[in-house]
Amino acid sequence: MNEQNGDEHQKEDRRWFLASGLIVAGVLAFSLTVGLVILPIAQAPNAGIDAWTAICRAMGLSPGTPAQPQPPSNARAAPVSQVRWTPKTLRTLAVADPRPGAALAEAVCSSCHGEQGMTISDDFPRLAGQSPQAIYKQLSDYKTGARYHPQMTPVAQQLTTDQLAEVAAYFGGLHEDIALGQAQVLAEDDMARLILRGDPARRLPPCESCHARGAGGPPEAPVIAGQNAAYLARQLHAYKAGARRNDVYRRMRDIAGKLSDDEITRLSETYQGTY
Q1: DSSP labels for 5-27?
Q2: Which fold has domain 180-275?
C-alpha cells in the first residue's frame, strides 16, 4: 500500500514538473517570437528597412536597431581638437623662428588681422601679444578640421606644422602700445567679481585663472584682455550653443553654458575695455 502511494506521488511530481517546464518554454517562446520577430517586423517600415533586416538586427546578427533609421556608414564623429602638448610640440614652438612667420603674416594674415595683429574689425580676433600656444592651437585645429572658418581653414591647411609655429611665434612676440593681456580689471562690479573670483555657487572658476597672462592655466588658453568685444561674445555664444567644439575636455562649453546672454555681452565689453 505504501509503495503504491509512493508511486502515485512520483507520478504526480513528474506531471507537475512536465507542466511547469511546458509553461516556462511556452512563455520563453512567446517572448522570443514577439521580441525578435513580431515587433521588428512591425517597426521595419518606420525605419525604412525590410522585415528580414529588422529581424537580423533584433537578433544581433546585423548592426543597428530596427526601431530607428541608421546613419550612413561613413558618418564622422563630432570634431575635437587633436593638439597634444607633448615635449615635441612645445619644443617646436620654443625654437620657432618668427622671421618667416612675419613674412607669412604680411602676405596672408594682415588683410584680416592687421599688419601688427591689432585689427579694429569685430569679425576677427586681435593677435598681437597673444600666447603663441593659443595661436598655434587654433591654427592646428583649423588645419585638422576640429574648428572651421571659410577663410582660416583653407589657409591653415596649406601650412606645415613648422609654419604654424612660426606664425604663432611672430604674433606672440608683437608688443603694440595696446597689446592683449597688459591691463588689469579694476572695477568692483559683478562682472569684475566673475572675472577675478568666479561664482562658486554655479561652479564657475574666475576667468583670469586661465586667461590672464602667466595664469598657469591650460597652455592653449588665450589672453583676452583687450580682445574685440563682438568677436569674444560670438565665440562664447558658439561654445554655449555647442556650435564650436574644439575646446579640450569641454572646458569652455561647460563654462559658457552657465552664463546668461547678458553676462556674455557684459563680460566681452568689460574685457575689451580693460586697456
Answers
A1: HHHHHHHHHHHHHHHHHHHHHHH
A2: Cytochrome Bc1 Complex; Chain D, domain 2 (1.10.760)
